[in-house]
């Protein structure tokens, strides 16, 4: 995919990097235009004593390191774990972005994701884009009971290395020792999907809709 408009949806900062960081890097290398929307900076799930805007700052470091400009990013601040209360506002935001940015492809969470905020974003994503854009979902195995690896995007070692570099900006999450932030986990998952695509590394996606 080259020179397309691609919309990335993250319920919280870090979701898209974890689910499809290597693919985002590959899409940027191919000259695609990226617009990125984050719905919550999870102020209420930070370790005690940490500044409330910590995750916003960490995410800003991530997208700037990728060369993405501020005007191509929307950082919203809905209350973590309560996105269901904002369902209609989230839909209206997506419709506004749809009309302005006209994405060819939307990447968001899976309809098989059981995090209460992720499922809200996944559902509203389908509602907003089902008739006009291709839609694929990234994998977050700790939230998925099932995940259909219908689409595999092959990646180079350097792209996985860069994905790990991106995740290192999230120091607040390393403090929590989340096991899915470990390098072993990132390499292991990438290798496992690589084996499915007869290459070394890949990321997996569910296809919700494909329109060309
Ligand atoms: Zn999340």
Straight-line distance between termini? 12 Å
Low-pLDDT sequence parts: none
Count, helices: 7
Bound molecule types: zinc ion
Strand content: 15-25%
Number of domain units: 1
CATH architecture: 3-Layer(aba) Sandwich
Please estimate the helix content: 40-55%
CATH class: Alpha Beta
Question: How would you summarize this macromolecular structure in one to three sentences?
Answer:
The chain has 212 residues and is an alpha/beta fold.
Describe this structure in words.
With 212 residues, the chain is of the alpha/beta class. The protein has one domain (5-209): Rossmann fold (3-Layer(aba) Sandwich), CATH 3.40.50. Helices cover 41% and strands 20% of the residues. It contains 7 helices and 7 strands; from the N terminus they run βαβαβαβαββαααβ. It has helices at residues 15-29, 54-65, 87-101, 116-129, 157-167, 171-175, 183-196, and strands at residues 5-12, 33-40, 73-75, 105-108, 134-138, 151-155, 201-209. Strands 3-2-1-4-5-7-6 form a 7-stranded mixed β-sheet, sandwiched between helices. Strand 1, helix 1 (15-29) and strand 2 (33-40) form a beta-alpha-beta unit. Helix 1 crosses helix 5 and helix 3 (87-101) packs across helix 4 (116-129). The structure holds zinc ion.
């Amino acid at each position: 995919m080259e020179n397309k408009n691609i919309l990335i949806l993250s319920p919280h900062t870090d979701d898209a990097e974890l689910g499809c960081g290597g693919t985002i890097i590959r899409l940027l290398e191919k000259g695609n235009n990226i617009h990125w929307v984050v719905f919550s900076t999870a102020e209420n799930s930070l370790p005690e004593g940490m500044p409330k805007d910590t995750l916003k700052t960490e995410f800003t470091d991530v997208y700037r390191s990728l060369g993405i400009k501020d005007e191509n990013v929307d950082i919203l601040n809905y209350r973590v774990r309560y996105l269901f209360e904002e369902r209609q506002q989230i839909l209206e935001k997506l419709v506004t972005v749809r009309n302005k940015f006209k994405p060819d492809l939307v990447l968001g969470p899976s309809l098989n994701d059981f995090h209460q905020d992720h499922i809200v974003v996944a559902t509203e994503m389908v509602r907003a884009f089902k008739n006009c854009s291709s839609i694929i979902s990234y994998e977050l195995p700790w939230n998925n009971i099932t995940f259909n690896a219908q689409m595999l995007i092959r990646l180079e070692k350097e792209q996985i290395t860069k994905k790990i570099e991106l995740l290192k900006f999230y120091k607040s999450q390393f403090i929590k020792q989340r096991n899915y932030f470990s390098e072993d986990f990132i390499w292991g998952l990438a290798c496992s999907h690589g084996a499915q695509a007869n290459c070394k590394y890949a990321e997996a996606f569910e296809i919700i809709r494909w329109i060309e």
